[in-house]
Amino acid sequence: MRRWLSTWMHHAIAQLVPVQAFDAALGDLAEEYTLRAQRTSSLRAARWYWGQIVRSMPQMMWIDIRRGGVLATFAVACGAWLVASAVESIADAALVVAFGSDDTVSALPGVLVGLAAFAFGGYLAAVVRPAAIKVLAAMIALVVATFMIAGVGQAPLWYGVAFLVFGPLTAIAGGAWRNTLS
Amino acid sequence: MPPRGDLLGSLEQIVLLALVQLGDDAYGMTVRREIETRTGRNVSIGAIYATLERLESKGYVSSFTGDPKPERGGRARRHFRIEAEGRRALRTAQDALRKMSAGLGARWEIA
């Protein structure tokens, strides 16, 4: 795998998993990758390496949540969600004042405001308990998917898809931004 | 004696047995490879660490960090060791399995 892509992917993983705490696990994978690359090929070893990373992510995230205390982490995520929702509601009300109640005009700014609110929520979660970022991201994905499946509201499909894809990502980005600042 | 309600799960038993087999050479990669070699089970490194963390929180294993190694990208090994409580819990779980399978005779045979 190209070095820049590998570096970028490790950086992305670092936002979800506390890499420092899992240094040993990443070292184990690096050590076994070398052995496998010598025995088979670097391509097959790389496929095995990234397969291990993908399969290990849920457990590593769960370890992180457990370390922080499961209930407390969920409580922080819920709190960040409520604050983000309140910010979004206030901003949405301001949009209605600015654009009127025409959905077609206010839809795009509505998405941008919503995503900014999720980023703010991620930032807040990271301030209190970094492990809560991924819980918040999962909550966003779950709630948006539920709303889409249940057909709640009159929003167009792209609106829901935008929130489903970028909602969790902006929450993680908000948390990552906070972690970078500290 | 481990708490009666705390019977070890199958992966917990397998990981503890791997620690016994490996002795001083037990760390994430060797534990994963030992399990794969002996059982054919391709366990993820995340599952290994999640199990080891759980066992450590119960006091069944302990860990210490070694020196960083260049072949590991400058990362250190985290070595694990089974503690007396862990050995007791493992023996209890193995005894329970032995007792439950005793006397099964022909019914134990897989067709």
Give an overview in words:
With 182 residues, chain A is an all-alpha fold. In chain A, 86% of the residues lie in helices and 0% in strands. Chain A is built from 7 helices and no strands. In chain A, helix 2 packs antiparallel against helix 3 (42-67). The two termini of chain A are 31 Å apart. The mean pLDDT of chain A is 82. Chain B has 111 residues and is an alpha+beta fold. Helix content of chain B is 50%, strand content 15%. Chain B has 4 helices and 2 strands; from the N terminus they run H-H-H-E-E-H. Chain B has a two-stranded antiparallel sheet with strand order 1-2. The longest helix of chain B is centred in the C-terminal third of the chain and has 18 residues, at 84-101. The mean pLDDT of chain B is 89. The A-B interface holds A 22-32, 34, 52, 55-60, 62-63, 66 and B 27-29, 32-33, 44-47, 49-50, 53, 65, 69, 71-73, 75-78.
